[in-house]
Amino acid sequence: MVRRCKHSNMIKKIGMMFLVILLVFASFCGQAYADKDIDDKKDERDKTQEELDEVEASIEELAAEQEGIEEEIEEVSCALVQILAEIDVIEAQMAEKQVQIDQAVIDYNAAVELEKQQYEAMKIRIKYLYENGDTNILNIFMESGSITETLTKAEYVEDLYDYDRKMLSEYQNTVETVKQLHEKLLEEQEELEALKQDYEAQQASMEEVVAELQSVADDYGSQIASAKAKAAEYAKQIEAQNAEIARLEEEARKKAEEEAARKKAEEEAKRKAEEARAKASSEVADSQDTGVVKTTSSSNIDVSSIYSASGSDVGKSIAAYACQFIGNPYVAGGTSLTNGADCSGFVFSVYKDFGYSVPRTSYSLRNYGTEVSLEEAQPGDVVCYPGHVGIYIGNGMIVHASTERTGIKVSNANYRGISSIRRIAQ
Q1: Is 78 one of the annotated active-site residues of the chain?
Q2: What is the distance between the alpha carbons of residues 277 and 24, in angstroms, rounded to a whole number?
Q3: Is 343 marked active-site?
Q4: Rg of the chain taking only CA atoms, in angstroms
Q5: Which class would CATH give 291-423?
Q6: Options 5, 323, 343, 384, the catalytic residue
Q7: Which CATH code for domain 22-245?
């Protein structure tokens, strides 16, 4: 009997080790998935950072190119200002030249008019002197009182001719000079006009260059603005990714702390369960040898029928272990095998001491484990009733936390209608 009990304990230990391995593996997988999520988020963040770096580099490059274009615009604009100043000077010179031309025209017309007047006066004098032919001239000389007077008159006539010739020649020279000045002024005006046109052509060309350069600069400005917007978007995305990484890391930290606390609690529970199982196994081993189990109320219960029944050693050990708490109180909602438990709390705690985690309520126990018939029932099976459960101990009997008046006791399995019988310990 002792050997069978040791074999049963070995099976339980193996089962517990397997359960612990599963829990550790599940915890490891959970942590691995959490770490993978954080790593994935960091990879995404790093990729976004690379894209941001590229955009910022392109912004610097575009800004440098834009600065170069703006320098070109400034140079061309300075040259354009110089040309506009030259045009202003030329226009001023042309205006002054026009005044000179207008004055030359006035002077020319005046000189021509004086020439005409002198010419007409000379014609009148000549006509007066010569209109009667040589007679009049002869009369002039004949009427002279003396030769001296005659010579004087002749000299006067000659002087008059010389004067007229001289004045006419002077007026003709004046007319020619004014005419040449006018022509020279017109030539200079044409040269200034041509120079102005040349400068205006340069102005138009430079304005076109400035417009083209400004268009390029504006395009760079648009590209820079677009790149800055994209950079801001990447920066915002990185901020959100960092926040998400921080959240995941905080979650992982809390989970790690919870897992550490859970493991500590499990180890403590495992230690207590081991102590309880060791105690239960010791007591069960004694009961296997004697066929008697001592209850917590110091009375003895014959459990030899449990070991003589068919079924697994684990189930028999559970049934025999449960019997030692006969006489202890029923407490609604309780799970203490010594201080009080209700029906499902009693089943829960007995199985817990053997390393099993079973549902806490009678309703849930009705669907846990494998269903068997009453004819197939073995010690350790859970017998379920409407709103109640107990542990089968063989020979058609159960041990259960019955009522507050009777506490934990043994009853006939058929004392009320059975809903289901569940086998948990194989």
Answers
A1: no
A2: 22
A3: yes
A4: 66
A5: alpha beta
A6: 343
A7: 1.10.287
